[in-house]
Design goal:
CATH architecture: 3-Layer(aba) Sandwich
Structural class: alpha/beta
Bound molecules: alpha-D-glucopyranuronic acid
Radius of gyration: 21 Å
Distance between the termini: 68 Å
Number of helices: 12
Number of strands: 10
Strand content: 15-25%
Oligomer: single chain
Helix content: 25-40%
Length: 397
């Protein structure tokens, strides 16, 4: 029996190799790759001004991501209503105000409700900048009673620093599940998207949900809606980048260990690949993306172009040294390769050729990066760096 098991494991290993499933973690085997041109339009025009970037190339790249990677993000609905379902002005021992907001969106007589949780610091007497977390780790990580203090959402620290912190559980918009992902806005509000090869799926739906949170912040006087900081970890980080790329109301976009189809370059053969991600998580992407499995060179985009769409607003990429699946170096390069667009706006960003050493934070004018020691997670250390970056960025504005 034991022998049989070993034989089948060996067979699976060779089968996987043949199918191209084996992951590469060897830098010397990454191979050569050529990124698609960031600053040349589909008709061959070279872009050299921010105006031409905004009117010609940026819209093209947005469409390419919609059509080939994440699917469309529909903007139309018939009605949106906000209802404060709970308020506690003495939360966190009097240091913060808690609000729970039901955001109900209706289209074609069908509705979906997103429950937004938020704390704002009582010591700040003007509208505050707000961290908004696209949270796939469940409500337990955002305990409003604060009995469970999870490092993933360290609300006390954020409040102490003078920021608001908020978040919603992605289950409200699209459950993070291969089968149930349609149960939120896809079935209810946008069923036609499910029939389209470039239709919205999970990551796009979460970004749609984050946009509705900003719709609310624009109406809440305790929040400075010009200073929204979008945060997501891993799959949430992919969605945060896609959200920040599209929605120009986001002031700072943070990607924590978003890896493949997030900040890291798809053409680098290191860690997770388009094949792996579209096999394990097909419901995150539009169906068209699957054709680039083991075929990354034919993708009309790479992930540096997603980061470039955020310019001239700020972007922060965080990685973890042991999180090789997410390819820390690939994430650094994704950020670095986006620099030419920031330069079009006269923003001098100059990331070094070499990735910074572990635990060293780089804060440039509109870009930040760190590679924390340790494993895949979002931790109080990461948050400390996000706050430092936000402090520096908002001070300069
Ligand atoms: C899986 C997946 C990654 C993703 C991660 C996460 O490992 O392959 O792409 O980022 O889950 O969300 O934690």
């Amino acid at each position: 029996m034991k022998k049989q098991k070993i034989i089948s494991l060996i067979l699976i290993f060779f089968f996987s190799l043949q199918m191209g499933y084996a992951q590469n973690y060897d830098e010397s085997k990454v191979g050569e790759y050529q990124l698609p041109e960031l600053l040349v339009t589909e008709s061959g025009q070279t872009i050299s001004t921010s105006e031409h970037w905004e009117t010609l190339r940026r819209p093209e790249i947005l469409k390419l991501f919609e059509n080939h990677v994440y699917g469309q993000v529909p903007k139309d609905f018939d009605d949106i209503k906000f209802k404060i379902t709970k308020q506690d002005k003495k939360a966190m021992d009097g240091k913060a105000t808690l609000k729970e907001v039901a955001i109900s969106v209706t289209r074609n007589n069908k509705s979906v409700t997103i429950n937004l949780l938020m704390f704002t610091p009582n010591k700040v007497k003007k509208p505050v900048p707000m961290f908004l977390v696209i949270n796939h780790r469940g409500l337990k990580t955002m305990d409003v009673t604060r009995q469970n203090k999870d490092g993933f959402w360290p609300a006390e620290k954020v409040i102490e620093a003078g920021y608001g912190i908020s978040g919603f559980d992605v289950i409200d918009v699209s459950p993070d599940d291969k089968v149930k992902f349609t149960e939120g806005i896809l079935n209810q509000l946008y069923p036609e998207q499910l029939k389209m090869d470039n239709g919205m799926r999970g990551l796009g739906a979460w970004a749609w949900g984050a946009a509705r949170a900003i719709d609310y912040f624009e109406k809440d006087k305790s929040v400075d809606a010009t200073k929204i900081i979008s945060v997501g970890h891993s799959r949430g980080g992919k969605s945060s980048l896609w959200f920040g790329a599209q929605d120009e109301r986001v002031a700072i976009t943070i990607s924590n260990e978003s890896g493949n189809s997030g900040a890291s370059l798809s053409r680098r053969n290191f860690g997770e690949t388009v094949d792996r991600i579209t096999t394990n998580f097909p419901y995150w992407f539009c169906p068209n993306y699957r054709q680039y499995a083991n075929n990354e060179d034919n993708l009309p985009v790479d992930q540096h172009m997603l980061i470039a769409l955020i310019a001239p607003r700020a972007v922060y990429v965080a990685s973890a040294a042991e999180d090789l699946w997410a390819d820390p170096k690939g994430q650094y390069l994704g950020l670095k390769e986006a620099q030419p667009v920031f330069k079009l706006y006269g923003i001098e960003t100059d990331l070094h050729e070499e990735m910074p050493i572990v635990n060293e934070q780089v804060i440039l004018k509109h870009m930040g990066f760190h590679n924390r020691e340790g494993k895949h997670n979002m931790t109080p250390y990461d948050w400390q760096q996000f706050i430092k970056f936000a402090d520096a960025y908002f001070k300069k504005q």
